[in-house]
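tool=predict chain=A
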Amino acid sequence: MPVTPPLLRAGDQVAIVGTARKVTAEEMAPAVEILTRWGLRVVLGESITAEHHQFAGSDELRRRDFQRQLDAPEIRAIICARGGYGTTRIIDQLDFSGFVQHPKWIAGFSDITALNCHLLRMGYESIHGVMAFIFNQTGGEDSLESLRRALFGEPIAYSVSAHPLNRPGTAAGELVGGNLSLLQNLTGTASDCPTDGRILFLEDVAEYLMNVDRMMVHLDRTGKLRNLAGLLVGHFTDPQDNAIPFGQTSYEIIASYAAKYQFPVAYGFPVGHEPRNMALICGRNAQFSVTAAGTELSYL
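tool=predict ok
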């Protein structure tokens, strides 16, 4: 059973850190204001004002900044600033021994899938949810509230409308997953996370349909689908196609591989690169049911 970090309380200190694409202090201002309104004290890491090409500072600076927040017992949560690319460049140089002594919440999605999976591989829960860069996005109010509820340990449950490709059934297991591209990229690394008996959730953005198929082939060939308890398919935003069309949508591609197995599948789950990106606690034991009326998910 993965370890649950201590829940946040008013007055706790949290850090915003950039592990991937660069951001500015001005872009972080709305997140600082919102977190302060939640009763938290906010520290901006040195990566927030750093820049190295597209990254939030050099690899060494981003590593040093994240390491500092991992090691600081007074920091109770790390909110990742933005996705993009860069987290896997530093993850193997991080020392989690201080984190193990003082576990804390780490929250993010997209490129932060690497951290979500790495922590679950270590036996710790983390949050797949909204990052600081988009705290104030229009239409994202429910997503932000779900992050707050996850951090403070308030009850969370989701109801999702039915989708024509859904496969009915019920499932229970620990949640694992995130960005499909990252999940494939992590295969065979120290951050590769087992899926057997777990509920896998997937999302992605701006991927060519051929690449979605290639990645699903890879997940299937490496056994990631074979023993799933269930599958939640989130947003596959802004799909790309070649001059000669691939001939299937992202959901149809995924359905063709899920059809080889018997686990329940729910499409259209509100997770991914759109304003409705509800927080999911990676490693938390959950149950979901898929019926003609739709999908229900809650934590056990």
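The chain has two domains: 13-152, 157-299. Residues 13-152 form a domain with the Rossmann fold fold (CATH 3.40.50.10740).
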